[in-house]
Every structure is written in structure tokens, then in C-alpha cells.
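in:
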């Protein structure tokens, strides 16, 4: 079953587009629309692009064609866990740098690969616009036409206008981005200046209304109208009418999610879809984990099967989260994250398979290794952080990092083994008729923002990593037992951080400085990235060394000399006793 099939409701869009050179010899405009099928329609949406190559440049046509063709290709190649904003900006930045680089072949950069570009993306029930230049995007709704973009142009005189922003104009791209709601029946009109400079808003609104009403050939008619109005430029336009969008029908969602029934509770020796149960690893009120092996292949490797709990067989939010777990796992590529395994045969029940990791949990390792070598701890953390960064690169937060969810194999390879609480930015922006299940991580390891209502980010996973690191080094938690009961920002602010070196004198002060920074109550005070945290754990940071406590002689000279006197006194007493014993 497609893991996001329950979100892929029928999005139907009508399209009419046209582009002509007009009275010019060459058409330097370029247009394109892509309506993907299946999962891409859900995770990426519908894309329309219009670009107008600058006629004063020598490669305007190549620039506009490159922008349209490459964006429609590259955007759909970005990870489907990314948000539209992240995907669009990364693709456009790369495109702009390529155009700018190509322009260096010309004597003047402004005569190279320069083009306007306006992009509309409709994903779920939200529209997204990326825009640079003076092409335009309009929305027609309830009989009114609204301009959604701003022209980036400077009018020098009635005959001369210069673009202040465009693709390929500068090495650093300055592009407008906005998002907004989309409703069934909305019509979007994209135009180049060869049309909107010669037709007024009333004429454009009439054309959009005609398209809304079902009239055909509207794009060609609009171009002819602009030519009759005296347009001397290339002319391009695109009409898109979204007839239906993501459904709000919960029954439709249930029919998708319930395509596969829950398996019964399994026991040793039972076979499901050809996989024989060898042992039960874990069973709780929410799920079960079994060691299984393909009964049809004697040489097959051991696998782990995760099944949902029958307690939730009518809970749509729970089922949605369960089917998303393998979807997330398949998109996180790392040697330090457990791998999802595709079944050899069609499934008849709801479950998923992953590799069997032969080893011990980090929780067990901590019990067996009190006060370990700092270098060993850093090596383990380095592997965990590699796994965590593979989540973050896909705009995904793990949200439940803890020693029980980390396994160390017999070969010393560290793997993260759970996806049950992951937050995927690209999926979260897809509207759903289901009130989504919010599963928070374990209170002892979750960052304060989860409980005080602030938005989580990558620094939230960093906080959990720092607690794990602290526990590995000391066998304790940094804030004691009071941390778990905190609910308000004030509660967290009143906690006292216990320096790790006070529990384990072998821990360098600069390592404790890194831990303390990553464990800041405010996200803004933590490291910008988990890799920075790792670096400070393995390289002395001079900032933390500057904060070393002053020697007792400087802080309290009287107490220092009192201590020295006491030690000398004890030394004299010990010497006297030794002398008496020798007599």
C-alpha cells in the first residue's frame, strides 16, 4: 500500500496555455506546466512556470528555456520530505548560479543569461509563488481578479524600463516567496509583459472569467487581443483552474488507510505472508516487534517485523502515523539508521519490515560502562549524529532520541532504530481530513519546547542528544528528577544544571561547556547544527576554557591558607604517629 495514498485525493486541474513570438522574429518566452501522478501529486503538487528572456541580453531565449525545463525537472527530484519552500529555493538558487556563471562568457553580465521567472506551485490546499522580474501571476476568485506578484522593474521613461531583479542577473538570488490558501474553483493566470502591458485588469479578468466558465481556446484569444492592442513583444499566458483539491472527507481517508487489516497478535512459529515468527522483541499497548525470517528462503537474513496494536484499529490518526513510519525510513539513507526492507511478496496485513540489528541498546551499554573514556563516548555520539543529520537533511525531526532507540552492533556500528515520532515538514504541510496524531518523545529526553508550546526544530533533537551524551558520561541526567515534571518556561528556567565533571572528574571542562550549551532551555542559545556540537565535544573550545573557575587562592585566599595549614597540621600529626610507632 502506498504510504501516502490516503492523502492523494483527486486533484483535478484544467489547463490552457499559449506562447507566440508576436511581431518579433524570435520567441524568448518559455512556459511549462506539470501535473504529476500518484505520490508526487501529493508530496510535490502541480507546478506552472512562466519565464521571459530579456531581449537586451544575448541568451535570453536559452535562459528562459533553461529555467522552465530545469525547474520542472529538478523540483520533482528534490526529497519529497522537503517543504515546497525549501525545494523551490534550493532549485532556484542552483539555477541562478548556473545562469550567472554562463553569463561570464559575455563582455557584460547583463547581456548574458537573464530572464524573468514566475512559478506557481499548488500542493494540497496551499499555493506557493516564487517570483523574480516582471512576469505576473493573478488569481481569479468569486468574480474578482487579484495580482499576486510585484513587478521588479524600474521605469526610466515611457519607452525604457529596466529589471531590478531577474534570474541570472546577480550571483546572489533575491526572489519573492509567498504562500496562500487555494480553493476549489480558483483560476490562476500567468502572463508575460507582452500581454499585461497592453491589456488592462478588466480585460484580463474577463478572460479569466471565460476560462472559469468553461470556454475553450482562451489563451490564444488573449494573445490575439493583446496583439490587436498593439503589443510589440513576445506573448505568453497560462490559465489553470483547480476544479477539485485535497478532500476533507474522513470516510475517503479511512477507505485508503484501511485497505490492509491489522494482523492478529503473533507468537513464535506463526507465519504471516511467508514470514515466520522466531521471537518477540517487544510488545506494548501501541505496537509489537518480532524477529522473523522468510520461511521460503533458508538462507534469508533475519528481519524485524513491526505490527500495529489492535487497540487502535479504528483510530485514523494512529494508523496514518504507523503507515508513515516506513515511508520516513525509506527516505533516510544512512549506515547509522536502521534500513526498511521491502517485502518479497504482496502484503495481506498492515506491518512493515526492517533489518535485524544484532547488538545491545545504548541503555544497556550505559549500565555496563560507568564513567567510560570520553573518546569512546564521542565516537558513539559521532555515529548517532551522522544518523540524526540524515534525518535533518530531509527536513525531518526524529523527536524521540533516547538510549532505548539506539543500538550498538557487535561490530561497534551505531544505529537509530525508531521512526514512530518523526516530524516530516513536507508531509506536515499537506492538509488532511484527519486530526493528526501528535506523539511526543520520552519526557526525560525531550526538549523544553515540546512542553511549552514552541515550535520544534533541529535544535530540539540536539537537546536530546546532549542529554544522552551527559548520561553516557555520568550515568545521571543533567537536571535531576525535577526535569520530567516541568511544564512551563519558568519551570525549566529554574532548573539547576549539574556540571558533568562534578559527577565524573575525568570529563574535561570544555566538554562540559559543550554539553551545557546544547542543553540550553532556549533553542536560540544552542548550537546552530548538531555537527557544531560534535566538534566542540572533540576539540577544546577556548570560550569554555576561558570560563574555567579561578584557583581557590584567587577566589578565597583565607580559605586557601586555612586549607594549607590544615594539611600541614595533618601531615605533622601523621609524622608524629609514625615516629611513635617506630619507637
Amino acid at each position: 500500500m502506498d504510504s501516502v495514498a490516503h492523502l492523494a485525493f483527486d486533484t483535478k486541474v484544467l489547463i490552457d496555455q499559449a506562447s507566440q513570438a508576436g511581431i518579433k522574429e524570435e520567441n524568448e518566452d518559455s512556459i511549462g506546466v506539470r501535473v504529476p501522478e500518484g505520490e508526487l501529486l501529493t508530496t510535490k503538487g502541480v507546478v506552472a512556470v512562466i519565464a521571459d528572456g530579456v531581449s537586451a541580453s544575448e541568451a535570453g531565449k536559452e535562459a528562459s528555456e533553461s529555467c522552465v525545463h530545469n525547474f520542472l525537472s529538478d523540483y520533482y527530484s528534490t526529497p519529497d520530505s522537503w517543504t515546497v519552500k525549501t525545494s523551490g529555493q534550493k532549485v532556484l538558487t542552483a539555477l541562478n548560479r548556473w545562469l550567472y556563471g554562463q553569463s561570464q562568457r559575455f563582455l557584460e553580465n547583463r547581456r548574458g543569461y537573464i530572464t524573468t521567472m514566475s512559478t506557481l506551485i499548488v500542493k494540497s490546499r496551499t499555493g506557493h509563488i516564487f517570483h523574480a522580474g516582471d512576469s505576473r501571476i493573478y488569481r481569479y476568485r468569486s468574480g474578482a481578479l487579484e495580482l499576486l506578484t510585484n513587478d521588479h522593474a524600474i521605469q526610466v521613461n515611457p519607452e525604457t524600463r529596466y529589471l531590478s531583479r531577474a534570474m541570472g542577473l546577480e550571483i546572489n538570488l533575491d526572489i519573492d516567496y509567498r504562500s496562500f490558501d487555494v480553493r476549489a474553483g480558483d483560476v490562476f493566470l500567468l502572463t508575460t509583459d507582452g500581454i499585461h502591458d497592453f491589456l488592462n485588469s478588466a480585460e484580463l479578468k474577463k478572460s479569466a472569467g471565460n476560462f472559469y466558465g468553461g470556454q475553450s481556446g482562451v489563451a490564444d484569444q488573449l494573445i490575439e487581443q493583446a496583439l490587436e492592442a498593439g503589443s510589440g513583444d513576445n506573448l505568453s499566458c497560462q490559465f489553470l483552474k483547480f476544479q477539485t483539491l485535497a478532500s476533507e472527507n474522513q470516510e475517503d481517508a479511512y477507505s485508503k488507510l484501511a485497505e490492509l487489516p491489522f494482523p492478529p497478535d503473533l507468537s513464535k512459529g506463526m507465519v504471516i505472508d511467508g514470514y515466520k515468527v522466531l521471537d518477540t522483541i517487544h510488545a506494548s499497548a501501541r505496537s509489537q516487534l518480532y524477529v522473523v525470517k522468510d520461511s521460503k528462503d533458508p538462507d534469508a537474513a533475519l528481519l524485524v517485523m513491526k505490527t500495529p496494536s489492535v487497540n487502535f484499529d479504528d483510530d485514523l490518526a494512529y494508523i496514518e502515523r504507523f503507515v508513515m513510519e516506513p515511508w520516513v525510513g525509506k527516505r533516510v539513507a544512512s549506515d547509522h539508521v536502521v534500513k526498511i526492507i521491502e517485502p518479497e511478496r504482496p502484503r495481506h496485513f498492515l506491518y512493515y519490515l526492517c533489518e535485524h540489528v544484532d547488538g545491545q541498546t545504548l541503555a544497556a551499554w550505559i549500565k555496563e560502562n560507568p564513567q567510560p573514556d570520553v573518546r569512546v563516548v564521542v565516537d558513539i555520539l559521532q555515529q548517532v549524529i551522522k544518523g540524526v543529520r540524515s534525518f535533518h537533511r530531509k527536513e525531518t525531526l526524529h523527536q524521540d532520541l533516547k538510549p532505548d532507540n539506539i543500538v550498538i552492533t557487535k561490530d561497534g556500528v551505531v544505529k537509530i532504530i525508531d521512526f514512530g515520532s518523526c516530524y516530516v515538514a513536507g508531509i506536515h504541510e499537506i492538509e488532511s481530513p484527519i486530526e493528526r496524531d501528535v506523539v511526543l518523545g520520552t519526557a526525560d529526553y525531550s526538549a523544553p519546547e515540546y512542553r511549552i508550546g514552541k515550535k520544534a526544530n533541529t535544535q530540539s533533537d540536539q537537546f536530546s542528544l546532549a542529554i544522552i551524551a551527559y548520561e553516557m558520561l555520568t550515568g545521571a541526567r543533567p537536571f535531576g528528577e525535577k526535569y520530567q515534571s516541568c511544564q512551563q518556561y519558568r519551570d525549566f528556567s529554574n532548573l539547576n544544571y549539574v556540571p558533568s565533571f562534578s559527577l565524573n572528574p575525568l570529563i574535561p571542562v570544555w566538554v562540559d561547556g559543550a554539553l551545557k550549551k546544547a542543553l540550553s532551555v532556549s533553542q536560540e542559545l544552542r548550537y546552530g547544527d548538531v555537527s557544531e556540537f560534535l566538534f566542540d565535544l572533540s576539540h577544546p573550545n577556548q570560550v569554555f576554557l576561558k570560563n574555567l573557575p579561578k584557583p581557590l587562592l584567587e577566589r578565597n585566599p583565607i580559605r586557601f591558607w586555612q586549607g594549607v595549614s590544615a594539611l600541614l597540621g595533618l601531615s605533622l600529626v601523621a609524622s608524629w604517629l609514625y615516629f611513635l610507632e617506630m619507637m
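note: The two ends are 91 Å apart (CA to CA).
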